[in-house]
Amino acid sequence: MNSAADFTSQDSATRISVGEAITPESLGASSDPAPEETARYALLLGDDCLILAQRLGHWISRAPELEEDIALGNIALDLLGHARFLLTYAGSAWGKSEDDLAYFRSEEEFRSCRLVEQDNGDFAQTIARQLLFSFYTYELYQRLVDSADTTLAAVADKALKEVDYHQDHAAQWLFRLGGGTEESARRMQAGLEAVWPYLEELFADVEPTAALAQQGIAVLPSSLREPVLHRLRTTIEEAGLRVPEAKGALGADRSGRFSEHRGFILAEMQVLARQHPGATW
Amino acid sequence: MSNEKPDLRAVDTTHGSITEQAQAAADDARVGWEHFQQLMEEDKRVEPRDWMPEQYRKTLVRQVSQHAHSEIIGMQPEGNWISRAPSLKRKSVLMAKVQDEAGHGLYLYSAAETLGTSRDEMYQQLYTGKAKYSSIFNYPARTWADVGAIGWLVDGAAITNQVPLCRASYGPYGRAMVRVCKEESFHQRQGWEILYTLSHGTPAQKQMAQDAVDRTYGPALQMFGPPDADSPNSQQSMAWNIKRFSNDELRQRFVDMIVPQAEALGLTLPDPELKWNEERGHYDYSDLDWDEFFSVVKGNGPLNHQRLAHYRAARDNGAWVREAAAAYAAKQADSSRDSALLSA
Amino acid sequence: MAKTDPTAAADHIPDGGVVIEDPADHSVWPLWEVFVRSARGLSHVHAGSLHAPDAAMALRNARDLYTRRNEGTSIWVIPAAEIVASDPDSKGGYFESAKGKAYRHATYYTQSEGVPHL
Ligand SMILES: [Fe+2]
Ligand SMILES: [Fe+2]
């Protein structure tokens, strides 16, 4: 009665399938352990994705329209997938799982950028944050596919295709909010202003990234600055909005000057896992 | 139907007088009714533009929209755990699951729209608190184990209810249900798996799982609606093939299914009377607390207010976005019209 | 009048769904019908409907909603209001002509039974 055959035998317009792609599980099982420095790099990239996925997940059931609940959900799921790849790979260097890294590191140990830690704000601010981050990651992954580290290259290859859609999603909304009503243009501009100070941090040549870039493993962050900024400027102007003039906020080095939000984000994300250390879920 | 366009045929006098028109309409309706009856008898599908009795249309709109509202409000109890899911795998699963529910709401609203009620109208009914949705979502998902219990029991009850509806007489509804059921099958399994893992974990985890099952069992059984004796409209709905089995039949079927599933979990169901009845070939179970059920339906559940407030806030906060996108589309349409004129 | 004639009410509803656009409400997005090609070599098939402010967003929403499980390789979106439908009412004889013309089908021709490749 309740078996799948009861309804799948019936007419349905489309057929579902898993589709072939790498998964965090298959990656964890197959790849060689990451070298120490590469692991630290993967961790930094993965933390960005994890925190942003955490932020975006909050929109589900709160989006402006049902269709958008689903769109933001898809993006959050993509990002969470990227985080899981990267954390799994990073953890392979230290015998740690993705969950060890996600749930049992402290604020000081996270490497996420402040951009992804910013509040969702209103829908415009979320779109602004998406715009900056997706444009940045698109340029990043486009180069990382050529990494000398084959695992990173494979992850970048998968992520690039997904991030391509994320930047389109952000740009489409930027145009609509920028060119919609007076109210939406005002909010969109405010959203851009709110997140702009945290853009610069993405281009800081921190270690071990810079050293790994020398070896053709990582992408040198400062090399992304021009292409990302150029595309952001063009898109924002096309949307009839102003490119914010805000300077990068100080502390743009992913060192220890993380945002005040981070503690709250982690407290919420980690609370249950930490109540039951060592438990399986 | 207040937004209906005027029927142009009624003022088109080139084909005869108004009385002839009225006569023709009456004939049409009679032929339509006979056709509809035949479809029902042969268990065939009614499609959107077919003639259908007004009551059939109304009943369907109510049933399908309530179902849609349940999917939408149902996002909240589990959505509440997305940010705290205890592993990244579980976080992905939960996010995908809650997102699916938004999709289910959307498929169902679409089906109801083919009956002449706009999605916005249905949103309004939910927004103003006039519409009903499944009472179970007015209970809190207090612990992580509730996510498991909801998936196993609530989605499980929903599937039991929905699989027969894949053959509902109204085409768009049946097709929506096929799509929903395909997606639901993962929901129930992931819930069961959460409970299984908890049940085989630490004593604290197992207790968490048992508590959640204890809380969810009764309300989940009530998802099938009041006992048949108190369900006056069921007969008509069954004649119309928009309800395939009675509330009690479905409930029994569900109980029979979950008993062995609970055993496989290593958890108990909170009903001391629950036992196999050889004669009936079914499990006997105790009466449910229907006073509580009706009290929750009337709005006095633990979270009726919160669920609605959450929904309203999302609609309110999104209004400017929806407006902006519509305004942008209008401007684009205008400017492409202008440029077409210029180039002409 | 439309109010008392149920067939008339149905006439205003395109197969995909009702198109009610209240000009006073600028925030209601129109309805779109979504067609998905599930694999190369197959036709686009109606998958369902959705709301979107414009064609570009309709396409994206369709991708997000109707191809989450790898259902598609290509999508069409069409404003529901643009669909022109035949009268589905079987009382009309619209499709009667197509019935009973067995000679249009290969099975009508039985002489050749047993003859190879025919
Ligand atoms: Fe559902
Ligand atoms: Fe579900």
TrEMBL record, chain A:
It comes from the Bacteria. One of its GO terms (cellular component) is cytosol. GO terms for biological process: phenylacetate catabolic process. Pfam families: PaaA_PaaC. This is Phenylacetate-CoA oxygenase subunit PaaC. It comes from Nesterenkonia sphaerica.
From TrEMBL, chain B:
PANTHER family: 1,2-PHENYLACETYL-COA EPOXIDASE, SUBUNIT A, PHENYLACETIC ACID DEGRADATION PROTEIN PAA. One of its GO terms (biological process) is phenylacetate catabolic process. GO terms for cellular component: cytosol. Keywords: Oxidoreductase. Its EC number is 1.14.13.149. One of its GO terms (molecular function) is phenylacetyl-CoA 1,2-epoxidase activity. The keyword Oxidoreductase applies. It holds the Pfam family PaaA_PaaC. This is 1,2-phenylacetyl-CoA epoxidase subunit A. The keyword Oxidoreductase applies. Signal peptide: none annotated. InterPro entries: Aromatic_CoA_ox/epox (IPR052703), Ferritin-like (IPR012347), Ferritin-like_SF (IPR009078), PaaA (IPR011881), PaaA_PaaC (IPR007814).
TrEMBL record, chain C:
It is an enzyme of class 1 (oxidoreductase). Keywords: Oxidoreductase. GO terms for molecular function: phenylacetyl-CoA 1,2-epoxidase activity. The keyword Oxidoreductase applies. InterPro entries: PaaB, PaaB_sf. Its EC number is 1.14.13.149. The keyword Membrane does not apply. This is 1,2-phenylacetyl-CoA epoxidase subunit B. It comes from Nesterenkonia sphaerica.
